[in-house]
């Protein structure tokens, strides 16, 4: 396994706030969890606007402080072009964005017998990737996290 793949696996640690977002046209839904998948903040809406993004950013900072997290990673399933405004906003603030292949989110949701929301599937993929060993991660998940740089 190459160095870049190891970096991607190590993005989620015990000091990382993991944010999964279900992207939509006017209103996204986000949830905060820790590195073990425990919900730190239940699902909440994020408006597709400058004001909505600012409020979202403040919620991230508050959650990081309350839960003693020093890092954050945001995972999304890119939907049409609706994710771009959020991606630019996060990039301006230095927050890494992991784009999850929609087919992997779909597969994760199918493997789970309950009705997962898209953000739950995204978080599940990010957490599974961190927990599994390098060899297992290739066999089990077969997805690529692509960070916007």
Automatic annotation (TrEMBL):
It comes from the Bacteria. Residues 19-117 form the Transposase IS110-like N-terminal domain. InterPro entries: Transp_IS110-like_N (IPR002525), Transpos_IS110 (IPR047650). This is Transposase IS110-like N-terminal domain-containing protein. It comes from Cytobacillus purgationiresistens.
């Amino acid at each position: 396994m190459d160095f870049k793949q190891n970096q991607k696996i190590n993005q989620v640690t015990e000091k990382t706030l993991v944010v999964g977002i279900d992207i939509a046209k006017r209103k996204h839904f986000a949830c905060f969890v820790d590195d073990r998948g425990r919900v730190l903040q239940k699902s909440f809406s994020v408006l597709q606007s400058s004001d909505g993004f600012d409020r979202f950013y403040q919620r991230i900072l508050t959650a990081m402080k309350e839960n003693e997290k020093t890092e954050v990673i945001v995972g999304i399933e890119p939907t049409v072009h609706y994710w771009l405004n959020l991606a630019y906003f996060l990039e301006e603030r230095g927050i890494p964005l992991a784009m999850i292949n929609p087919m992997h989110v779909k597969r994760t949701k199918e493997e789970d017998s309950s009705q997962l929301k898209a953000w739950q599937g995204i978080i599940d993929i990010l957490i599974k990737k961190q927990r599994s060993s390098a060899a297992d991660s290739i066999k089990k998940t077969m997805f690529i996290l692509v960070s916007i740089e």
